[in-house]
Amino acid sequence: MSRAELPGALYTAEQSRALDRTAIEQFGIPGFRLMQRAGHAAFVELMAHWPGIRRLTVGCGSGNNGGDGLIVAGLARQQGVDVQVLVLNDDFEARLQGEALAAWQWAQAVGVELTRWQTGMELQGDVLVDALLGTGLSGPVRGETAELIKQFNRSSRPVLAVDIPSGLCSDTGRVLGVAVRADLTLTFIGLKQGLLTHDGVDHCGQVLFDSLMLPDEVYEEVSLSAFRTDSDDLAKLLPPRRRSSHKGVFGHVMIIGGDHGMGGAALMAAEAAARSGAGLVSLATRPEHVTAALTRAPEVMVAGVNSGQDLQPLLERPDVLVVGPGLGQSAWADQLLQQALNSGLPLVLDADALNLLQRRQYNGLALHDWVLTPHPGEAARLLGWETDVVQQDRFRAVRELQSRFGGTVVLKGAGSLSFDGDAMHLCNAGNPGMACGGMGDVLSGIIGALRAQRLSAVDAARAGVYAHARAADLCAAEQGERGLLATDLISRVRRVLSGIE
């Protein structure tokens, strides 16, 4: 398996340590052997990405992460590379224990020397290796460690992070004071969930993974934290259609939204639902938007509604309702949301539907057959938190949302999370081009269409999030991230969901 092929299982720092302990204690794999494998894997990737380097700087802490770095330094020294190993303590050697001490004894035997780092000292390497801090970090990085990390970040030279960029929380992806900005991160044994969300996506660069040859039985002994969604999941959730299929098999989704001046949001959701394979798509919106909607999307059945009373008879036909795109927060919006809540149908709630939930305290309903799709700001309003508190621990936030509101919750953002109270799913596809208006409307339409096609709420959510993000990556690969529009995704979503991207 290529190190670029990331596994589907995600772990916390403690779970990763449990995997390490299990391999050593139950399966008899020596800890130093694992360290040697880690150092060798890092060295191989170092030479593959930056061939021909003549000088290398390795920053080493006194823990096992530093031991991995010492192995890298020793291997580089054996290949004739001029190696500068920087340490931060005068008593560095005395602090070493266990496998890290064994790594130093081996590295010393092949000619590696230590240099006590001082502020302003030149970093001599063509490439920098970060092996300062591992996954055990619990508080902010301070003192000389913080200063050396800042010097790494000021340098124009590429950085390889060993296991995790120093200063990054492996559980949440939050920067603990200051963190290394790596170009490449090679992580070991268990893929840490924090590498793929929040600040992690800005600090890890390309993420690679190496299991260090642990047998599958080790992973069976330790629980995981989350699942990473990829194209294989789509193939399992959306098998080829039967030749005898008809539109009734694939469900009817209704989009409800599009108040004055916001008709485009509801229409984008409807178009996305149609392109995502729903058998029938209808749209309930302001009467003045009907003509434009029919002109742009004649496949969509459009009805103008002036009140919740107008909407009520239309709710007899759909299988799923998507409420919120362009809904607004007027009395009209309130009435439409109330009718949707009373319908008993599966729901996808986005945008202003979520704001109305918070304002009207509909959360007491705790419906179990809905998908809520907040971005961090909406999540903060629903929880009564600050947005930065949501972002500091996105896993905690999505769990709290699901606990309060029930159903399935999608917390959008870098490393979008889907959680139904049981399984956590993370999507690491997507790119910054998605930071524009309308993306959430398209996503809600996709999830609604998948729900109408008889996927469970959590499967519709995680598959929809992945298809949406992957479509954005296809668009960016073709024409770049800057200037990406939400409507650009709609035709690509069809290809992703059909497995022909």
From TrEMBL:
Family, per entry: Belongs to the NnrD/CARKD family.
Subunit and interaction comment: Homotetramer.
Binding-site positions, K(+): N65, D130, S166
InterPro entries for this protein: Carbohydrate_kinase_pred_CS (IPR017953), CARKD (IPR000631), Nnr (IPR030677), Ribokinase-like (IPR029056), YjeF_N_dom (IPR004443), YjeF_N_dom_sf (IPR036652)
UniProt keyword annotation of Metal-binding present: yes
UniProt domain YjeF N-terminal: residue ranges: 16-220
Known catalytic reactions: (6S)-NADPHX + ADP = AMP + phosphate + NADPH + H(+); (6S)-NADHX + ADP = AMP + phosphate + NADH + H(+); (6R)-NADPHX = (6S)-NADPHX; (6R)-NADHX = (6S)-NADHX
Cofactor note: Binds 1 potassium ion per subunit.
Cofactor annotation: K(+); Mg(2+)
Protein name per UniProt: Bifunctional NAD(P)H-hydrate repair enzyme
Entry superkingdom: Bacteria
Pfam families: Carb_kinase (PF01256), YjeF_N (PF03853)
Binding-site residues, (6S)-NADPHX: 64-68, 134-140, 163, 265, 326, 375, 441
Binding site for AMP: K412, G413, A414, G415, S416, G440
Keyword Isomerase belongs to the record: yes
Domain YjeF C-terminal: 230-500
Transmembrane region(s): none
Database matches in HAMAP family: NADHX_dehydratase, NADHX_epimerase
Keywords: ATP-binding, Isomerase, Lyase, Metal-binding, Multifunctional enzyme, NAD, NADP, Nucleotide-binding, Potassium
CDD domains (alphabetical): YXKO-related
The EC number(s) this enzyme carries: 4.2.1.136, 5.1.99.6
Protein's job: Catalyzes the epimerization of the S- and R-forms of NAD(P)HX, a damaged form of NAD(P)H that is a result of enzymatic or heat-dependent hydration. This is a prerequisite for the S-specific NAD(P)H-hydrate dehydratase to allow the repair of both epimers of NAD(P)HX.
